[in-house]
Write a structure and sequence with these properties.
alpha+beta, Inhibitor of vertebrate lysozyme, Ivy, 6-stranded antiparallel sheet, 5-stranded antiparallel sheet, 26 strands, 34% strand
Length: 396
């Protein structure tokens, strides 16, 4: 039940037992979340190291959006990887452009947009992960790892450590729920967060869903199917995930409590914050970079302190717990699901070809709640269409 495992992080990643399968860890979705160390510190690209590119100085790279690509790269992606999403993209301090696709293909271009090499990120991870992680004493970690943690996470403490029997890699679990992986020589490879927000939820087989809940779903959502289900070990309540991106919550007796979207369910750990209480660094950044905008609202992730500021222009700014700028995105993207360009209704493609000749669709999303498509062109123009592909408006 992969969706439940992804949504609820039911596979705990902390080394609470003596051994842990390397395959169990490194084959999960380890797309890193933003941390106070910045996105570069957690990039999956850090495992990549070739004669063509060196990721050891990745903290000096500049994160790019697809709209920042030279036209030749946009054309190359459209011709060779249509429908494949972009997970990360960067410009190195040497000017090369590095793109990690969602299928784990890494494309490296020179500053002029010419392809230098295409790599499979999986080739830079060991193929054989059938051995185990042995728990080791923290004192037995290489000094280079201890120094890395002390330098990059001075406020964190190492809680546990492990060593992979197969390849000698090291895993370090910090008390801030961050997990770091190092190679056998102690060189940093990657980081991700051990998000235990849903540790009280357990996957539930469809056959074990109370009949009262099944009857409620059949009566009130006749066109929907149950994809996943979970039970809360703390209070016995149930969560039912429908294929319409809706989550239904029931109490332990099967009585309906509420309906919410998948996104709302995942973001339940966010607390609203008064804009007046934002860190001064956040206020200063907004004053300097968005002086004409007002703050509509702000919220903080109670899990890691990440701050989200919603401006009246529709832009969402993301900051770490200390107020350092991390990222930004348009608010309309928040409730959208990315759609492969190849899967767009033909009427939308025809409209773009007729009204924006020479322009390329670089990304597309669908808002299930509004029943609208959002289409981004390579000049940053965003077009909105209804579910039938009829043009609605151009977003500012």
């Amino acid at each position: 039940m992969q969706r439940m495992k992804n949504l609820m992080m039911l596979l705990a990643l902390v080394l609470t037992v003596t051994v842990m399968s390397c395959d169990e860890k490194l084959n999960e979705d380890t797309t890193p979340e933003e941390t106070t160390q910045g996105v570069a510190a957690n990039s999956r690209l850090r495992v990549l190291s070739t004669d063509t590119i060196n990721t050891s100085n990745m903290n000096t790279w500049v994160e790019l959006r697809s709209s920042d690509f030279p036209q030749s790269i946009t054309d190359y992606l459209a011709a060779n990887y249509s429908g494949v999403g972009i997970e990360e993209s960067w410009q190195t301090d040497g000017g090369e452009i590095v793109i990690l696709l969602e299928n784990d293909i890494v494309l490296i271009f020179n500053s002029g947009g010419e392809l230098l090499i295409a790599l499979d990120l999986g080739d830079f991870l060991d193929d054989d992960y059938d051995e185990e992680w042995d728990e080791i004493d923290i004192a037995d970690l290489p000094q280079i790892i201890l120094d890395y943690v002390a330098t990059n996470y001075p406020d964190a403490t190492i809680e546990e450590a492990g060593k992979c029997v197969e390849n000698g890699n090291f895993m370090v679990v910090l008390d801030n729920d961050l997990i770091l992986v190092f190679d056998k020589d102690g060189n940093f490879l990657e980081a991700w967060e051990d998000d235990d927000e849903y540790e009280d939820w357990e996957d539930l087989d469809a056959a074990d869903i109370p009949q009262g809940i099944l009857d409620y779903v059949a009566a009130n959502y006749p066109d929907a199917n149950i994809e996943e289900a979970a039970v809360n070990t703390e209070d016995g309540s149930f969560a039912i995930f429908l294929d319409t991106e809706i989550v239904l919550l029931f109490d332990k007796d099967g009585n309906f409590l509420e309906e919410m979207s998948y996104d709302d369910f995942e973001e339940d750990d966010f607390d609203e914050i008064d804009p007046a209480d934002l860190p001064q660094a956040v206020k200063d950044y907004i004053a300097a970079n968005h002086a004409d905008d007002s703050i509509d609202e702000a919220e903080v992730d109670a899990e890691d302190g990440t701050i989200y500021v919603y401006l009246d222009s529709g832009l969402v700014l993301v900051f770490d717990a200390d107020g350092n700028y991390l990222d930004e995105f348009d608010e309309w993207e928040e409730d959208c699901t990315e759609v492969p360009v190849a899967d767009l209704p033909q009427v939308i493609k025809d409209y773009v070809a007729a009204n924006y000749p020479g322009k390329t669709i670089v990304e597309a999303w669908y808002n299930d709640e509004e029943k609208e498509y959002y289409i981004e062109l390579d000049d940053d123009t965003v077009l909105v269409f209804d579910e039938d592909g009829n043009f609605i408006e151009v977003l500012d």
